[in-house]
Design a protein that fits this description.
This protein is an all-alpha fold and 80 residues long. It has helices at residues 2-21, 27-53, 56-79. It is built from 3 helices and no strands.
């Protein structure tokens, strides 16, 4: 899980910097991207902390439920 998360972080950083260098991001948008990175890191650390304290099957089930809830939220927002 750590290496998967690290690869997403590296890809996200590369994407933001590439977009900025290509002129697709303004300086303000780059600042927003950096500021929103902080809650992502905090949430990831909390997720690793929870993962260390739960049995792996329960943790996977919890993650799947969160993904399901997020997906349903997106669908319902489009329907309403």
């Amino acid at each position: 899980m750590f290496w998967l998360t690290a690869s997403f972080f590296a890809g996200g950083v590369a994407q933001v910097l590439s977009y900025y260098r290509l002129g697709l991001y303004s300086t303000m948008l780059l600042i927003y991207a950096v500021v929103t990175f902080v809650p992502v890191v905090v949430g990831t650390l909390i997720g690793f902390w929870i993962q260390d304290r739960l049995p792996s099957a329960r943790f996977r089930r919890l993650v799947l439920l969160l993904v399901l809830a997020s997906g349903l939220n997106l669908v319902l927002r489009q329907l309403l």
